[in-house]
């Protein structure tokens, strides 16, 4: 048994490990300037709650009376990364006098802000107020994030039952069923059933 534990520990040290695991194992030995940039796809998608907060800020700016270009420019500084860049470019295009449908094409490429781009284009054509629609969009974004979190927690509860079953089933068989079968077999083999 000790030999198998030593072999498992040795293989863990020799096996190729991801750079994230190496960083975690080495702790603070790597300074922030030595760290390579993150290239995960998770870092490219915006946090849904941060996007909802950005929508709330945009709605507040519009309710305060700022024009759309100034509102988008002010909010872009505090938005999560993919949204920040696209909102900033849209704000600059709107400030330069570009057609709103063309300016909002940049934001339409982001999955989290596709609805915002549709609403802004519609508002530019019809002249309808956009702040209340953006507030509803923020509420919808939060609801979707909550639904995803609930689904992930329910999925985790289901996935944990497999390993627990694999651990408890052999123990139940060894401690619950085997002694009963041995006791019955001993009585049957010793002299039959009374």
From TrEMBL:
Gene Ontology CC: plasma membrane
Domain Type II secretion system protein GspF: 56-174
Compartments reported by the entry: Cell membrane
Comp. bias (Polar residues): 29-44
Region Disordered: start-end pairs: 25-46
Entry keywords, A to Z: Cell membrane, Membrane, Transmembrane, Transmembrane helix
Major localization listed first in the record, in broad terms: membrane
Entry-linked InterPro entries: T2SS_GspF_dom (IPR018076)
Domain of life: Bacteria
Transmembrane segments: 168-193
Membrane topology qualifier: Multi-pass membrane protein
Name of the protein described by the UniProt record: Type II secretion system F family protein
Protein species of origin: Rhodococcus spongiicola
């Amino acid at each position: 048994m000790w030999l198998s534990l030593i072999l498992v520990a040795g293989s863990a040290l020799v096996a190729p490990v991801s750079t994230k695991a190496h960083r975690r194992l080495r702790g603070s030995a790597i300074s922030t300037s030595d760290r390579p940039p993150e290239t995960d796809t998770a870092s490219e998608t915006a946090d849904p709650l941060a996007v909802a907060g950005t929508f709330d800020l945009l709605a507040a700016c519009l309710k305060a009376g700022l024009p759309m270009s100034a509102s988008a420019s002010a909010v872009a500084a505090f938005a999560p990364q993919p949204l920040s860049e696209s909102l900033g470019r849209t704000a600059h295009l709107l400030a330069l006098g570009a057609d709103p449908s063309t300016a909002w094409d940049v934001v339409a490429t982001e999955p989290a802000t596709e609805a915002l781009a549709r609403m802004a284009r519609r508002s530019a054509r019809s002249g309808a107020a956009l702040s209340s629609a953006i507030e509803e969009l923020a509420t919808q974004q939060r609801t979707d994030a909550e639904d995803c979190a609930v689904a992930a927690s329910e999925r985790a509860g289901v996935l944990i039952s497999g390993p627990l079953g694999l651990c408890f089933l052999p123990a139940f068989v060894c401690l619950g069923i085997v002694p009963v079968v041995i006791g019955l077999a001993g009585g049957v083999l010793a002299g039959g059933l009374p």
